[in-house]
Amino acid sequence: MFDTICAISTSRGVGAISIIRVSGNEAISKVAPLFDGKNLLEVPSNTINYGHIVKDNEIIDEVLVSVMRAPKTYTKEDIIEINTHGGIAPTKKVLETLLETGIRLAEPGEFTKRAFLNGRLDLAEAEAVENLISSGTDLERKLALNQMSGKVSRKIKKVRDIIVELMANIEVNIDFPEYEDALIITLDNLPPKLNEIKKELETLLEEAKIGKLIEQGIKVAIVGRPNVGKSSLLNALLDENKAIVTDIAGTTRDIVEGEIELKGIRLKFIDTAGIRKTNDIVEKIGVDKSLEIIKEADLVIHVLDNNEELTEEDQEIMTKIKNKTHITFINKNDLPTKIKLNSKDYIIGNTKKDNGLETLKNKIIELFELEDIKTNNLEVISSTRIINLIKEALSSINNALSNVDAKIPVDMIAIDIKKAWDLLGEITGETYQDELLDTLFSKFCLGK
């Protein structure tokens, strides 16, 4: 924790510049002898200094060196950032030169891990850093910034404060029963407090649905029997020839994926193999995979052929998706209509002429209320880790309520209340295990 680390913070490859970040108590003293320019040990904090990185009297590269002194830095340690030319060779050579001084190569996410361990960020804020880096839409960016600014953490801390006040009163009742100023917690007045906590947690989970939608997008499975136009629909929605399209049934044997953005939300389309009974081993594997994707999808688009009557296979697919959020798209409306549906709830169009595609997109917007998301408060949770911890905390509070009904003594009920408090502490890192940190920060890039 107290050694000095370095890593390339910019993307690998050729570019205008590369940035190599160094952090630690010896960051400035280790880099200063390599820098031919101003004495870095004497320059003020938050300055950029022109010069060269030099090794054995050989100029390695012309650079700009930023000096940032603790504690007002990202890691709360001394930080040096070396701006080199963006070629692979100069970047690699400068990094090698730093490593030869005894500076260690940083582990994935180690700069942000140090920011957390040094109190610069809490765990929820640190997790949002990676979300911001990987954000693909403007809504994802705003969501990550809100979490990184501490707005989500404050909501968690608010619930923990309610719980800790309740726990304190229970402890006083147990340890100091003679203390008259403390609120006496009984099985009669405990439920209102527990229900208050429960309501706060349920609100957080309800709000998280928006966050999860923004961060993870909508997984859309395009399904149907062979040769109804699934691949053509995927190509039309993506506006590119992503999937192979032929008149031969069973052309698509594996999944084909593509992505578009709709109202700031990523739609992840998956074109599946045509679902039908087959003796072809390879095609059967594709069909089985299609059925599995239906289970995992947030939305299923069932494609039917306008020029063919409903088949037994069509009916089987309808049965499988009836409890899923789904849209029926009838393709090939340029051909005579032979299909008959009992329901009027479908979209008819033509993938070759782009007929019905806007109607299809508008239906998706309506089903997932995408128009309202931009107007919503984006101070919400999106992390699966955090959502799962809140669910566990809620389960503990529900257990406590059940134990109240069962007339379990208050000091025993306090165990579940304390568990909820600890679980919420894992969200911000007030309680954590080292294994959690290793797993969380291993997802980061080296330079962050």
Number of domains: 3
Per DSSP, the total helix count is 15
The separation of the N and C termini measures: 16 Å
Proportion in helices: 40-55%
Count every beta strand, where a strand is a DSSP E run of 2 or more residues: 13
Strand order of the largest sheet: 3-4-5-6-2-1-7
Biggest sheet descriptor: 7 strands, mixed
Instruction: Give start-end ranges of low-pLDDT stretches.
Output: 243-253
Which structural class do you get from the secondary structure elements?
Answer: alpha/beta
CATH architecture of the largest domain: 3-Layer(aba) Sandwich
* Strand residues, percent: 15-25%
Write the layout of secondary structure elements.
Layout: E1 5-8, E2 17-23, H1 27-31, E3 35-36, E4 47-55, E5 58-68, E6 79-85, H2 88-100, E7 104-105, H3 110-117, H4 123-134, H5 138-148, H6 151-175, H7 190-216, E8 218-223, H8 230-238, E9 256-262, E10 265-271, H9 281-296, E11 299-305, H10 312-321, E12 326-331, E13 347-348, H11 357-367, H12 370-373, H13 384-405, H14 410-428, H15 434-441
Parallel strand pairs: 1-7, 8-10, 8-11, 11-12, 12-13
Antiparallel strand pairs: 1-2, 2-6, 3-4, 4-5, 5-6, 9-10
Helix pairs in contact: 4-5, 6-7, 6-14, 7-13, 13-14
